[in-house]
């Protein structure tokens, strides 16, 4: 796996420079590094199918909750796409979960499709409640081992070195033995 280079995410500083843009009514869940994700479902696809973390088993996952009205979230989208493309689909999956309604998501999904991110929306707040989303931007980094590496809420530019380090830590996390064995099969 290629490590994320600081130069490839320098622009992340722009997207991360201000505190949370929204304080919703979802109660915060105290997720800690090392915890297993509290839910497999993070949202749903436009066709209504659930978007499940188990679909990305063995990969590092960057789970980002966002909205079109969140300026910082929108600045972050091409940066997340850059992370996806630099790290490669074999080892990393960026999942961008929109917190707005279906009509908004439908319109924006067409615009964002070229970014090659896994896109979902969360109309019933299943993912938001499970992952304690109480403001935007909100990012959870999950290692290849399926454990939470870090949770970022309203992150700022000063956290860029830590975010890059956590992304690299997630990529470097050992894949569970059962997944590694099945991946080695021809």
Would you kindly provide a written description of the structure presented here, covering whatever features stand out?
This protein has 186 residues and is α/β, with parallel strands linked by helices. The chain has one domain (6-16, 42-184): Glutaredoxin (3-Layer(aba) Sandwich), CATH 3.40.30.10. Helices cover 31% and strands 19% of the residues. It has helices at 12-15, 71-87, 102-112, 126-130, 160-172, 177-184, and strands at residues 41-44, 50-52, 60-66, 92-98, 118-121, 138-142, 148-153. Mean pLDDT is 83; it is low at 6-27.
DSSP E strands, number: 7
Overall mean pLDDT score? 83
Task: Give the helix proportion (percent range).
Answer: 25-40%
CATH architecture label name: 3-Layer(aba) Sandwich
CATH-defined fold name: Glutaredoxin
Unreliable runs: 6-27
Assess the beta-strand content as a share of residues. Answer: 15-25%
Quick rundown:
The protein has 186 residues and is α/β, with parallel strands linked by helices. It has helices at 12-15, 71-87, 102-112, 126-130, 160-172, 177-184, and strands at 41-44, 50-52, 60-66, 92-98, 118-121, 138-142, 148-153. The chain has a single domain (6-16, 42-184), classed as Glutaredoxin (3-Layer(aba) Sandwich).
């Amino acid at each position: 796996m290629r490590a994320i280079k600081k130069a490839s995410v320098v622009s992340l500083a722009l997207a991360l420079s201000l505190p949370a843009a929204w304080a919703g009514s979802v109660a915060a869940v105290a997720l800690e590094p090392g915890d297993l994700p509290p839910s497999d479902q993070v949202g749903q696809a436009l066709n209504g199918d659930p978007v499940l973390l188990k679909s990305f088993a063995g990969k590092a996952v960057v789970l980002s909750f966002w909205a079109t009205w969140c300026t910082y979230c929108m600045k972050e989208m091409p940066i997340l796409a850059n992370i996806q493309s630099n790290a490669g689909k074999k080892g990393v999956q960026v999942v961008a979960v929109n917190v707005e309604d279906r009509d908004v998501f439908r319109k924006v999904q067409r615009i964002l499709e070229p970014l090659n991110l896994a896109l979902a929306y969360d109309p019933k707040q299943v993912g938001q409640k499970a992952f304690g989303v109480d403001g935007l931007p909100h990012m959870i980094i999950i290692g290849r081992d399926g454990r939470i590496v870090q949770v970022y809420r309203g992150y700022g530019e000063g956290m860029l070195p830590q975010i890059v380090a956590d992304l690299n830590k997630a990529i470097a996390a050992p894949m569970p033995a059962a997944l590694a064995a099945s991946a080695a099969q021809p």
